[in-house]
Amino acid sequence: MLNIGDIITILALIVSTVSAIAAMISARAAANQVKLMKEEVEGRERPYIDGSFRIKGGIAVFTLENRGNAAAINVSASFDGISPDTVMKKSLNEASLFSHVIKFFPAGEQYSHLVAPSHILLADGAPKEFKLKLSYQSVSGRPFSDVIDYNLDYLREVLLPSVTIEELLKKINDTLSEGLSNRV
């Protein structure tokens, strides 16, 4: 038969065990909370390098931009497979923006490179599909890599039809001549 002292000891042991288990569960929950908070901050305070083709004044320009909230380091960008040709008749991969690593790329910064006149880049038969490979790190050393697929056909539909300056001047002259002849 158990005496009262043994029962109190057993109850104290059970309470201690339950308290220890509750403390372990609480510690694990706190550790998970800290991990989630760290991941949230890293997700919010990270670099995000993006590239885009734009047409400015009839010239195709490629722009790399850090759209993230933190600086990136050791940024490298290259077109996989076919690369657009530049005005200098070289592959865009040979341009300094692509052939050199960007050691430090601040948040909000962008770097651009002239590609070619838009009517040449978007000419019938010219390649329109490109794949850009990006790799970079956060300043804390966390690595990132992205692949962006481009199909430039959409640019053809948002631009005015390509016309040379001579053709445009001739149309203006013809329109003005027609307008003046109708007045006489």
Walkthrough of the structure:
This protein has 184 residues and is an alpha+beta fold. The protein has five helices and seven strands. It has helices at residues 4-44, 96-99, 118-121, 153-158, 165-183, and strands at 49-56, 59-66, 72-80, 102-105, 110-117, 129-138, 143-151. The strands form two sheets. It has a four-stranded antiparallel sheet. The mean pLDDT is 86.
Helices, by number, come to 5
Quote the beta fraction. 25-35%
| Global shape | elongated
Label the CATH architecture of the largest domain: Sandwich
- Stretches where pLDDT is under 50 for at least 5 consecutive residues are none
CATH topology of the largest domain: Immunoglobulin-like
**Number of distinct beta strands:** 7
The N- and C-terminal alpha carbons lie at a distance of 130 Å
Radius of gyration: 31 Å
Query: Average pLDDT across residues?
Result: 86
The spatial strand order of the largest sheet comes to: 4-3-6-7
Look at the helices and sheets and give the structural class. alpha+beta
- Give the helix proportion (percent range): 40-55%
Structural features:
single chain, 2 domains, Immunoglobulin-like, three-stranded antiparallel beta sheet, 40% helix, 184 residues, 30% strand, alpha+beta
What is the element layout, followed by pairings?
Blueprint: H1 4-44, E1 49-56, E2 59-66, E3 72-80, H2 96-99, E4 102-105, E5 110-117, H3 118-121, E6 129-138, E7 143-151, H4 153-158, H5 165-183
Antiparallel strand pairs: 1-2, 2-5, 3-4, 3-6, 6-7
